């Protein structure tokens, strides 16, 4: 495939963790007719190589990457916990519906929280 290439950071200019976040954001923002794909975004090497991004100094890059790693991890944990709660409420809803249909309202009304 003509869209397969490997992008590696020049570690004297870009911290690896910062490069990860930079690539994620750049791929999201490369909005033009050459960016396509459903499951995986495809972009040409020419477009990718000519996409300009700001590069703070290495210390600032590390601070930004550390902040994004920590904050996004915390948000992912909240999403997981929230999804668990949603899943539990869906199970409760299903049980209430099943009880209402199979047992009747008197049993369902007395067993709900």
- Helicity, as a percent range: 55-70%
Gross morphology is: elongated
Tally of strands: 0
Which structural category do the helix and sheet elements fall into? mainly alpha
- Percent strand equals under 5%
- Overall mean pLDDT stands at 83
Which segments are poorly predicted (pLDDT under 50) over 5 or more consecutive residues? none
Discrete helix count:
4
Specify the biggest β-sheet: none
Question: Radius of gyration, rounded?
Answer: 24 Å
Q: Layout of SSEs?
A:
Layout: H1 16-29, H2 45-49, H3 58-102, H4 105-111
How would you describe the overall organization of this protein?
The chain is mostly helical. It is elongated, with a radius of gyration of 24 Å. The termini are far apart. It has helices at residues 16-29, 45-49, 58-102, 105-111. 63% of the residues lie in helices and 0% in strands. The mean pLDDT is 83.
Supply the key terms.
113 residues; mainly alpha; elongated
Briefly say what this structure is:
The chain is an all-alpha fold. The protein has 4 helices and no strands.
